[in-house]
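Subject: for your reference before the review

Hello V.,

The reviewers asked for a structural picture of the protein, and I figured it would be easier to keep everything in one thread rather than splitting it across files. Below is the amino acid sequence we used in the manuscript, unchanged from the supplementary table.
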Amino acid sequence: EAECFEANYPGWHEHYGKIYEEWRARGCEDPSCGFIPLMWFIENNHPIYIDRVSQVPFCPSLCKGASTLRVHELNGKKHSFSDDWANSPPVLPNCPP
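And here is what came back from the structure prediction:
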């Protein structure tokens, strides 16, 4: 799979492939080893946010594209956005917590 990614996305291995190599070395291919990839992000200071719009995990410290983290607080709750359009606080429905 790595060869396919590198062929279609030059530079992929240099940017992301090293992470997968480290995960393999720590046993990620064997579920019984107990390795949890999310813990790797925490141990290596790569915070994970959930994009408010797409609900997709977003790691700004590993992002290769032009996306930027935006965090807005509304009604005491923080909401993260990975797109530049979110420069102003979101308008959210008034839903109970």
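For the response letter, the relevant points are probably these. The first helix runs from residue 2 to 8. The chain has a mean pLDDT of 79.

Happy to draft the paragraph if you're swamped.

O.
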